[in-house]
Amino acid sequence: MFARSDSQESLPLPIFCRMDCTSAAAKRYKYLRRILRFEQMDFEFAFWQMIYLFVSPQKVYRNFHYRKQTKAQFARDDPAFLVLLALWLLISSIGFAVVLRLGVLGFLKFFLYVVLVDCIGVGLVVATALWYVTNRWMLKPACRDQDVEWGYAFDVHLNAFFPVLFILHVVLLLFYHVFIAQPWFVSLFFGNTLYLLAVGYYIYITFLGYNCLPILQGTKALLYPLTGLIFFYVCSLALTMNVSTAVMNFYHYRVL
Questions:
Q1: CA triple 191-197-201, angle to 5 deg
Q2: Domain that residue 221 falls in
Q3: Count of structural domains within the chain
């Protein structure tokens, strides 16, 4: 269903300028209008994307190129991925409510906080910052009449957020009480390593999202935060700081 022929992959990417497509406002309206029409969403393809964000994220971004060729935009026009992500957030929030022993009100506050702040709020900040940086300093001189779509920048955030959600809200949750929360160095090492993998994955998938755009240059700079991440990871082990426990305490008290 999702396979592409070699001839399709070898087609050169067309060049689109800002004014040759439907306006950004019209695209957003079309996207939001479909968000409650489940019969129009391709959930199978969205699930495929989630799997390949772990297995081979390059294939996910290759599909964004196909969308640019056929629909003149890199950003998703199908909200199925966002709907599935919201479902994952709901399920993981129920798990957190059980682990943190939250009541119904606490669960609702936690779920809204995760969706509105951790996912959407952080996404708005990161997507807007990278949208500005890439359009301001990373456009190739020959591509100044083009730009990175803000909707695509937000899609890159959602792509990078899903592995973080799975690692920290599913895998970590399963091991938290029985292993990670124990006062052993191996528990601290395992929990902090999960955070290293999750944040590292976020940085790497974000880099892939912008590196695949033919109008950008110098995107390797987006990998620089990995250096700071590794430094923090080493320091956390040296100082025996259990990041997982600290974050769990933060999660618990922010919904009180």
A1: 150
A2: 22-31+39-254
A3: 1
